[in-house]
Amino acid sequence: MSLRAAVFGAGSWGTAFSMILADAGCEVSLWGRRLEVVDAINGSSCNPYYFPGVTLPGGIKATSDPEEASSGADAIFLCTPAQTLRANLAAWAPFLDSKATLVSLIKGVELGTGKLMSQVIAEVAGCDPKQIAVISGPNLAREIVARQPAAGVVACADGTVAVELQKMCHAPYYRPYTSADLIGCEIGGAVKNVIALATGIAEGCGLGENAKATLVTRGLAETARLAAAMGAESQTLAGLAGVGDLVATCASPLSRNHALGVKLGEGMSISQAISMTKQTAEGVSSAKAVVELARNRGVEMPITAAVVAIIEERMTTQNAIEDLMGRSVKPERDDAEQ
Known about the structure:
The protein is an alpha/beta fold.
């Protein structure tokens, strides 16, 4: 008997992950907010609004009814913008099976509260933390729907649940690993979007590979500092959910955060750049939340702070570059002897 998965969110990543689950042998119910998307998926096995020309597996059925979507699901995968998760989940909670595992596919930090997505899920759904999982990694949706090889990390406090989820999404082209470090995976996934904005800005300004490599490397150092302050395992940031996701997002033109950063670097205002980006760039909304999270824990994150200043138009890109380059010099490693 095949396992049943519900995916809430029929955007690019929700659609792509539904494909992974179906190709791994699961029956998939895909919830979509827009009726035209639901009808297109059911009528033509295609999501023309995100992946025109891509035929989805037959095991995916779409619906706009949250109760229908979640009925009988062994696991419920949440894939909405980070800043709308709380409100959406509050509306869906009455229909969710109390025995189902809730899995976050979302990479962001909630504004105002500074909560990670797993924390929002625990607070709103009121479920056992062992029923909450996170999936992260270098997973560009466009490559996934082309069935190009990729890997990810399934993180859950309950190792047995992590292995069950691993089996559910182990497709011929998608290789999932397990972890118990939810915090590390979530911090890696959230901050890499901000660093991708930074590397995009650098590219838009015409800076070279040295500058972009520096931003990626020092961005990883910032991410690791924050993750460590929140109790994450250092090895997580050296893996797929850390450096793997960071490299993919910062280097690829398929990354919406990188693409939006390029527009900012070319001189567009944040409102102009957002208006030209069809999908949500989580780094824009999460950047300020990450800075607040770091400030509350006494963690220094100069690249992230510079990105926020550019987004809020308190600093020009040139001023940000000069500010970062003019900072006092110090050892590369934070634990190095002074």
